[in-house]
């Protein structure tokens, strides 16, 4: 155990580790130790506890400790806003943001992306546009994370024109930028733009990641574009050396199931290098019911019991 004057930085480091690994069990143990050692009331430790509980999705605990903290700086508000947003508690996130503004806390470049995600989750375009103004006023227009969040917000709120304007005006884009715009076109059925953007992405030398392929495959599934879906799924390994993850298999099974190719979907699952989850089997079972494939459904049900 370190000397008493070293306890605060010692436990702050432990709490940072709990936060980065999202280890709730260890976090509770360290919290208990800070209480036992008498440093839990230190504002710096309370701040670390708020951030750590937020990172672990324990918003009740995080909010309670936040209420006890004497100094409530911007980064603590940011932690709570992100925490609520990650749990899809968008109303709570926006309410806290309003509380932050009333308290006259300064906004930094980490504040608004989570607020924009909440606007997108609630499809409140008017508020999203107001937050866009805040992005401009505070000088974050060139920040990639804020711009990416704006593209997603406009896309999910149905304003693809503004989303594309944001995309085209960005001097710097990363894979998240491209994925956000591709997903936006996909969710609104603009499949030609999905494929055109993917090709443009390649031309500009940006390699697609797993999230990008998920967006493209989801678009193919929703559009009934089976051949295109097969092409992009094969492209992952053949062209980019990527191993498909569970979400990619789920897109393919959904796509094949919608088209009535149940045996192919079953074979795809059986050949997976990772274990399928119940949701994946459930997607295939649902397709079996729609298309009346009793024999495949019986085998799927058997695999779900294993």
Question: Which features characterize this protein?
Answer:
globular, 306 residues, single chain, mainly alpha, 74% helix, 18 helices
Architecture overview:
- The chain has helices spanning 7-21, 24-37, 43-55, 59-68, 74-86, 90-102, 112-122, 125-137, 144-156, 160-169, 175-187, 191-203, 210-223, 226-238, 246-258, 262-270, 278-291, 294-305.
- The mean pLDDT is 93.
- It starts with 6 loop residues before the first helix and ends with a helix.
- The longest helix is centred in the N-terminal third of the chain and has 15 residues, at 7-21.
- The chain is built from 18 helices and no strands.
- The chain has 306 residues and is mainly alpha-helical.
Give the strand tally: 0
Radius of gyration: 23 Å
Indicate the percent of residues in helices. over 70%
Q: Give the integer mean of the pLDDT values.
A: 93
How would you describe the shape?
Answer: globular
Report the structural category.
mainly alpha
Oligomer: single chain
What summary fits the major beta sheet? none
Query: Could you tell me how far the N terminus lies from the C terminus, measured between alpha carbons in angstroms?
Result: 48 Å
Number of helices: 18
């Amino acid at each position: 155990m370190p000397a008493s004057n070293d306890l605060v930085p010692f436990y702050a480091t432990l709490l940072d580790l709990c936060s980065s690994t999202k280890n709730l069990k260890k976090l509770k143990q360290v919290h208990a130790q800070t209480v036992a050692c008498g440093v839990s009331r230190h504002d710096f430790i309370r701040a670390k506890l708020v951030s750590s509980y937020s990172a672990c999705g324990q918003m009740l605990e995080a909010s309670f400790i936040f209420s006890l903290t004497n100094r409530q700086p911007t980064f603590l508000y940011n932690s709570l806003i992100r925490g609520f947003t990650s749990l899809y508690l968008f109303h709570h996130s926006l309410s806290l943001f309003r509380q932050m503004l009333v308290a006259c806390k300064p906004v930094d470049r980490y504040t608004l992306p989570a607020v924009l995600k909440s606007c997108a989750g609630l499809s409140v375009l008017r508020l999203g546009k107001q937050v866009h103004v805040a992005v401009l006023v505070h000088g974050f227009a060139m920040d990639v994370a804020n711009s990416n969040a704006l593209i997603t917000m406009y896309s999910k709120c149905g304003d693809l024109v503004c989303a594309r304007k944001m995309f085209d005006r960005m001097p710097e884009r990363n894979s998240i930028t491209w994925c956000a715009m591709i997903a936006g076109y996909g969710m609104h059925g603009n499949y030609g733009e999905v494929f055109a953007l993917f090709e443009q992405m390649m031309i500009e030398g940006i390699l697609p990641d797993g999230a990008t392929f998920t967006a493209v495959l989801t678009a193919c599934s929703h559009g009934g574009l089976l051949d295109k879906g097969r092409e992009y799924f094969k492209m992952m390994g053949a062209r980019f050396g990527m191993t498909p993850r569970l979400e990619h298999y789920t897109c393919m099974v959904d796509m094949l199931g919608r088209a009535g190719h149940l045996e192919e979907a079953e074979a795809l699952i059986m050949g997976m290098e990772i274990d399928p989850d119940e949701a994946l089997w459930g997607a295939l079972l649902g397709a079996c019911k729609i298309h009346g494939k009793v024999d495949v459904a019986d085998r799927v049900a058997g695999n779900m019991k294993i």
